[in-house]
Specification:
142 residues; alpha+beta; 7-stranded mixed sheet; 4 helices; 7 strands; 32% strand
Length: 142
């Protein structure tokens, strides 16, 4: 099930996974399975054409990816989404690559103990199909 409330719980879960904390205003979406969050997105720093997105996941689902795409493109009207990941988080970098995100740069010391890699995905490049989403599930060899 995809949920957007309570936002603070989703943001705390995502922040705990990636080592940051979020201050409002933000919105959030999560995939909840058997009463626990298995993936979550936090959206903040909206600038009309772009929104910064933070992602943490034990497993990404097609359902959540479609909901995120609809939220970013249809509800917010953004043409792009910006992501930051730890330079040492290879799994996140691979997931972003599979989503169609492109590496745009490095922010030295962003996480304190680690640099951040800055990625972006354009609306027209977002592969929100069922097949693309399933390829991100590690249980399916993605």
């Amino acid at each position: 099930m995809i949920v957007s409330e309570p936002r603070a719980d989703i943001a705390a879960w995502v922040g705990g996974k990636i080592g940051v904390s979020f201050e409002p205003p933000y919105t959030a979406l999560a995939h909840v399975d058997r009463g626990r969050i298995i993936a979550g997105y936090v959206f903040n720093v909206w600038t009309e054409h772009d929104v910064e997105v933070s992602l943490a996941a034990d497993r990404l689902s097609a359902t959540l990816m479609r909901a995120v795409f609809r939220y970013v493109a249809d509800q917010l009207g953004c043409r792009r989404a910006t992501f930051r990941t730890r330079a040492d988080n290879i799994a996140a970098q691979k997931a972003l690559d599979r989503l169609g995100a492109r590496l745009e740069g490095r922010q030295r010391g962003y996480f304190g103990d680690c640099d951040a890699l800055l990625y972006a995905i354009m609306k027209e490049d977002f592969p929100f199909s069922q097949k693309a989403a399933e390829s991100l599930d590690p249980r399916k060899g993605g």
